[in-house]
Structures are given as structure tokens and as C-alpha cells.
Write a structure and sequence with these properties.
heterodimer, A: mainly alpha, two-stranded antiparallel sheet, rod-shaped, B: Leucine-rich Repeat Variant, 35 helices, about 0% strand, microtubule binding (chain B), cilium (chain B), cytoskeleton (chain B)
Amino acid sequence: MKCFKKFLFSVVDLFRKKEYDAAVKIQSWFRGCQVRAYIRNLHRITTVIQKWWRSYLGRQEYRLIVKFASCAMKMNFYNAMAVRIQRRWRGYRIRKYCFNYFYLKEYLRAVSETNDAIREALEEFAEMKEREEKKADLEREEKKRDYQARKMHYLLSTKQIPGVYNSPFRKDPDPWELRLQKAKPLTSQRSKAKPKPCISLSDWLACTSARSFPQSEILPPIDRKQCQGPFRDITEVLEQRYKPLEPTLRVAEPIDELKVARGEFRRQEWMRNVNDNMFLPFSSYHKNKKYIPLMNSSSKYGPNSYGSQHFRDENPKKWICDKDFQTVLPSFDLFSKYGKLYSKAGQII
Amino acid sequence: MSQRQVLQVFEQYQKARTQFVQMVAELATRPQNIETLQNAGVMSLLRPLLLDVVPTIQQTAALALGRLANYNDDLAEAVVKGDILPQLVYSLAEQNRFYKKAAAFVLRAVGKHSPQLAQAIVDCGALDTLVICLEDFDPGVKEAAAWALGYIARHNAELSQAVVDAGAAPLLVLCIQEPEIALKRIAASALSDISKHSPELAQTVVDAGAIAHLAQMILNPDSKLKRQVLSALSQIAKHSVDLAEMVVEAEIFPVVLTCLKDKDEYVKKNASTLIREIAKHTPELSQLIVNAGGVAAMIDCIGSCKGNIRLPGIMMLGYVAAHSENLAMAVIISKGVPQLSICLSEEPEDHIKAAAAWAIGQIGRHTPEHARAVAVTNTLPVLLSLYMSTESSEDLQVKSKKAIKNILQKCTYLPALEPFLYDAPPNILKHVVGQFSKVLPHDSKARRLFVTSGGLKKVQEIKAEPGSLLQEYINSINNCYPEEIVRYYSPGYSDTLLQRVDSYQPLTK
């Protein structure tokens, strides 16, 4: 019985377990469904919240991005415009101030014009100088020829004798002939000695001469009524006013001028001359020869009278009478006139 | 009577002394006699005659001494050693004008030979007495004193400073204003010698008011005076910008340009030296000269003279062109480059050629326009030949090389560059090929011309190390042309073609 009960219990138990398990299964599945539904709801709700939160964050970020993008776009636009302005300005500045092409071209043109002007001016200047030099040369030549003509004026032809330059075989006279006709004969005086640089009395006198005072021109008449009366001739008046000083001879020359001049002259001669002996013409040479007396006619105590006063040994104590010999015949006449009869030219041998 | 005889003895002695001293003075004028005189001991005989009672003998003795000392420096040293100078200086202060002239002549003759002798003159206190002589009434005395001071100041800066310290500068400026031409000349020459050594000395001369008077005298017709005046102004202007500006403010332009047309060669030379010294300082001064038409006048002047006279003018053009490209362009349009290239080819002297090469380099180095203007006148082959020739001096070679390099780096005028491909040495060839490689990629006509004129062929023949700059240039040129053409012109192409002909088997059917 117990076994059967045990067996029954086990089968019933089994059946009960089965039912129990089935009920548990059904309940757990149902509970599981419940919970799942609940969790699903929760999930759904959470997702909604998260969705909304995320969309909020995203919109925020989107706003930032849009803001930055719009800023960047604006800045790019402004930069581009600014670059456009700067570009224009820089181009203008360089072209106008730093390297102005047209100004440079203008400048170079102006420089080349100035160069041409300067070249012309310098050429003119050089030409002018050349002309002046040629003129000066020609004038010098003229002067030289004039001077020569003046020196040679005696070669001019006369009515009787044709001159050197006027040969009868020529058709026309030589140009020198014409020049000689025009020339004034040259005097032997030296013209215009150089003025002495030293300051002396003569200079002061010279400075009062007519040339040095300023000759005033006749001034234009002042407008007033005519002065009355006969007036002297104006030239006379001026002559009298500007009459040069005519010093007396005593004042004009310094007192010892002659001595000074002589001394100066003598000194110059000493400086200049190598040989101090005077150059004497031969014919008078013997006259200025110094007489050297004979030794035996001059003694220590003065010259002996023998040979200078008498030529014979005199012994007055032996004289008979004190008359001298008389000459019987006169001396030969011709030789007394020797040297005095002929011309001066004949004297110089 | 015996008194007369006594006096006669003295007179004879005086006559003898006078005669001796006059004969010595006359003999000393001829150089061949001076050796004999020196051997005969003339110095020791002349020395006591300087102290003679008679003034004429003193003067003639001084004159004879001066002529002897003038001849060579041994005699001048003998004068110094014989203690003659103190006596001369002492009597300079007291005697009459003939003696002063003769004594100043002796000082000048001694001082001209060397700085030591001039220092000896300064040491015996001659400068003060010479400066006192500058204030004398007689122009001959002033001239002799100014001449002596000029010769002393010529040697070096210390002596110049000593002369200036003695107070000579204002007196020399007064001497310049005197009417006698010879005195003006000598005073101008002395001022030039003083101011040439240093800027301070030049400033002292300028402070004495020299510039205005010197500038006025440029108009004087006497050529020797103009020489000295222009030389003085150029010595003043060369030291600094301020001095140069002061010279320019004296309104010398455009009057100075007429001196460039003068007949006398040295006037031209000194005038071009003056303009050069002014132009070399700053671009503004060069601009001033260009605006006044100075460049054209200078170019004409260069064309009309030869040799060393041209040199300052050539250098002036170089200085003007070196400052800026506008000034270089101004030189170009004044037709400066043909004239300079004539100088370069004509002149026999190397230093003048070197100066011309430098000037051309300065003109052409600024922009391609300038380089083109230089290249058109066919100057570059001349420069190249000067660089390559073994006869040129080192200076000339260096300058022509620099000029070629500078011009080539900017030259885009290809017809002028082509001859360089053929004759140039490798270091210049590099630049030439470089220029070609810069121009050819952009200009098709030039490419065609390059091929037809045989340039491409020549380029192919150039051997260059791989990896060097030359090889890069050659590659960039080759890249401008299709490959067949490059291969066609490469050396040995005809051989390869013939080889191909040899090795070709015609297809036999």
C-alpha cells in the first residue's frame, strides 16, 4: 500500500509538478512579458528623453557652426573687398610715387633735351672762342706787318726811283708798296716806357694831371629861370679849373736826384760790366795812354826836370850866356797838320 | 791820395764779389754747370756772401743759392746742413723786397724735394716769416712766399697742418683776390696743396672763405689759372659730402661745363676731376649734375681727348651710373655707352681700359633694359676678349670679368648672348646658358631663332658634370624642345644614323 501510495504520490506528484511547472512557466512568461513591456516602455520613454536632449545639443552645435560659418564667410568677403581696395591703392601708389613710368620717361626726355641744349651751347662757346682766337691772331699779324712797314718806310718808291716793291716790270705794285704808302715813319724814340712802380713825388704830381681828375660831363640844365649876364666860355672855365699844377723847377725834382741817379747808374754799370776799362777808339788810344816816366828821369824825391822840361843835360854853371839856340829853318809844315786835315772817317784806321 | 788808394782797394774787392756772385748765378741756370760748381765748393763760398754789406750781393747770392738748391736734393741738403736757413729766415724779416723774393725762392727750392727738407725749413721757423711776407705790398714777394708755402704743404698732412697753423689760409685767400694773374695762380695752387690731405684741412680752407672766390675765378680766361682753381675745388670737394655740397652751392654748374670745352688739356682734366669728385658722394649730387646736362658735356669731352685726360671723365660716368638705375638710364640716353666702348677698344693703357670696363659694368647691371642697351653696342665681345687675353693686367681682367658677370645676369637680349656660347670660358658659359634657360621657355620666336642659328647644337656640345648648375640649365633648355630635335642636334647623331643604315636589313620578299 505504501508503495502504491508512494507510486501514486509520485505520479500525482509528477502530475502536480508538471502542472506546477506549467503554471510556473505560464506565470513566469507572463511576468516576463509584463516586465518586458515595462522595460520597453521605460526604454521608449528614455529614448524619447534622450532624443530630445540630443536634438537640443545638436541644435546648439548647429547654431554655433552656422555662426562661425557665417562669420567666416563675411570675413572672407570683407577681406576680398579689402584686398581689392589695397590692390588698387598699392598699384596706384607704386605707379605714381615709387616708380612712375611716365614721369621717368618725361624726366629722361627732359634730360636728353637739356643735354642737347648744353651740347649746342658748348659748341657755340667753343666756336666763339675759336673765332676770338683767330681774330686775335689776325690782329697780331696786322700789327706786326704794320710795324714792319713803318720800319721799312724808306723803301717807298719815289717819283724818280721805283722802290723795291714797285718794280716797273710788274703790272701792279706789290701789296707791301701800298702798305708802305699808308705807314707813318717810325721815330727812333721808344714809345711809352713802363711806369715805375715806386711811389715818389713825380707820382703825386702825375695824379693831379688832367687825366686823373674825373671830367664831369655837362649836366642837364636844372629847371629854373635863366641866370643873367654874359658868361665865360665853358671850356675856358673848365680849363682854368682843372689846370694842372705847374711846379717850379725847385719843387719838381728832388735836390740830390742827379747824384742818386749817377750813383745808381754807376752801380748798375759795375754790376753789369765784366771789364771796367773804357773801350777807346784806336786813333785816340795813344792820347789817353798814361805816361809812364823813365826810371832815370824820376827820382825818389820827385820827378827830375831832365826829360820833362829839357832834353839836354844842363849845367847852368857852364853857360856863357843865358839865351837859347835859335832855330834857323822853320819845321816842316805838312806834318804839323797831320791828323787834323782829313775827314773824321779817315782818322779811324 | 792814399785815402783814395785805400778806397780803391775796397772798391775792387766789392767789384770782384759782385762779379763772382753774378757769374755764379748765371752759370747756375744751366744744369751742366752745376756739377762743376758743386765740386768747386760753391756752397761754402756763397754762404758768407749772404751776409755781405752790399744788398745787391746778398740778393744775387741768395738767387744763386736758390738756383743751385733747385737743381737737385743733394745741394738742397747741403744748404740745410750749412746752417744757411736761419740766416735767411732772419733777414727775410728785415730786408727789401728783392732780397725777400730771393730768400723765398731759396726756401721754395729747398722745400720742394722731400718731406725731411721741408720739415727742416719748418723747424727753423720759416713759416712765420713766410706768412708775414704774404702780407707784403709787393706782389712778387707775395707770389714767392705763397709758392714756398705751397711746396712745403705739398708733401704730407703734418706739414700742411703746420702751414695752416701759421695762419696762412686766410692770407692765401686774400692773395687770390689780387689782380695779378701769376699771384692768383700760385695762391690757388697753394690752397689746392693744403686741402688735398685731409678733410679738416679742407674745412679750414673753406672756413677762410675760399670757395666763393675760387668759384668766381672759373670764368677767368687764363688757362693756367683755371687749372689751379679747378684742382683746388676738386681737392676740397673730394673729402666728404658736406664739402662737396658747399662747392656745389657756390653755383659752379653750369659754368664748369664750359671748362670741359677748353682748349687746354689739363683744364679739361681738372674740370672732369672736379665733377667726378662731386658725383661720387651721393645720388642726389649725381642727380644734380645730370639735371644740369653734365653727362652730355662729359661725354663730348671724353670724345675729344685721349689718354690719361679721359680717365676722370670715364670714372665720373661710372660713379653716376652706379648710384641708381634712373641715373644709369640717363647716361644711356645721353649716348654714353657707344663712347665708352670706343674708349675701351681704342685706348692702349690698361688702367684706362679697366676704368671703362668698370663704368660699362655699372651702367649695364641694373635691369634688362640697361643690359640690352649695353649689349646692343657690341661691347660684350670686347670685354670678353680683354678678359681672356693674357696681355691684360690683372686689374683689367678682374674688372672685365665682373662687368661681364653683372651684365650677363640681367641680359635678355639673345642675339648678343649667342656669340658667348662659342668663345666663353666655362665660368662665364654657366651664366650665359642660365640666361638662355630663363628666356627660352617663354618666347617661341626666340626658341626658333635659337635653333636656326645653331645655338641648340652648341648647347648640346657643352660637356657638363651631371648635377651641376650648368647641367640643370641645359636640361631646362632641352625641355623647351621636342625630343626629336634635341636628339637631332646632339653630337654624333649623324654617326648613329649611319650606323642604323649599316645595320638595316631591307625586307626581302
